[in-house]
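Why does residue order matter? Because the sequence determines the fold. Keep that principle in mind as you read this record.
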Amino acid sequence: MDSVLMAFESIKDKKIRSFLTMLGIIIGVGAVLILVSVVQGYNADLTAYYEKQGVNKVNVSIINFDRTNTMDQSGEFMSWVSESLADQITGVTPSASASGTLKYYSNVNDTAILYFGNEQWSACNNYTLDEGRDLLAEDIDARSRVCVIGSYVADELFGFREAVGETLMVNGTPLTVVGTFYQKDGGEESSMDDAIVVPYTLNRQMLGTDSVTGFTVKVTSSTGMSAVMAAVEDWLIENIDTNTGEYDVENGNDAMEAAEDETASLQVVLGGVAGIALLVGGIGIMNIMLVTVTERTREIGIKKAIGAQRSTIISQFLVESTVLSGCGGVIGIFIGYSGSLILGKAIYDMILLPDVWMTVAAFAFSLAMGVGFGMYPAVKASALQPVDALRAD
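Structure:
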């Protein structure tokens, strides 16, 4: 306890020098916590984005070089998925899209994405109905000129006016709005709320083709992804002639998992870079402790002359270097938490706080720097001969 009090007294006597000595530790700990927290915030933001799009999706592409049977085969595929995989999926829908120019009297929206789907499109893509109704199977069969619009489209074109029941022009084709979706992506231009969904059977009229090549199968649980993908591939092998067509099956979760792996690697790299600052801080502590030993040579000589053991001298200087680095660690933690909160709010509009285990690890590492880099000066101090030390000025 006396060694700790002496260490604080030494820090108090030389405030500026002590602060400059701790600066490397402060920067290192603060940087570690801030950088890792920001990367965690990026990962959380990215995960939220993929979840908005909808997870557990199997993306299927079927391309026939013989265009005469494309629509029939597409219908067969969706019927088979709906019947054979009913207990494993939420739905299946075509997934074609195009750019769209939407007009309602003088109001124009030219940033919306025009999606072609069926009555299960919203369930497959994680959209929730707000007002009106969703697309129906009858709309698909009858090629009804109807649509469901995102919240941004509704606000941009209709404002406070009721959108359901109104008719808007989509790329020159009049469509009746039968429903609107809840806001899911900030309600901004070019977001997922800047969207309009129409029956995929209107693709010939609006896109000039009967071809349906892309499909989304929404799987109920991530644990069922492999089984559904295997079943889909088996059906495609049996039904697609590779001489006249081709197919592809993709796990929609792969992109999110790859992004998570990248951010995990980025965390390690940034943490390592910040850790270098801790090492530099530790070297700074060692240098200052060597200076301290030189300044207190006479004090060391007196203590050894009256019977102080080498272990006592070592512990005294080790405690001082550890307290010095520990104080730097505490200040660094405060800066790390403050910086994480500020950057989290500014960049991601969320509250970011460093993980407890990361905070404990950073503080423990700062103490380890004090012990490791304080050992050599402490041993050097304990090795001084009393007679030589007492002769020092």
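The two ends are 29 Å apart (CA to CA).
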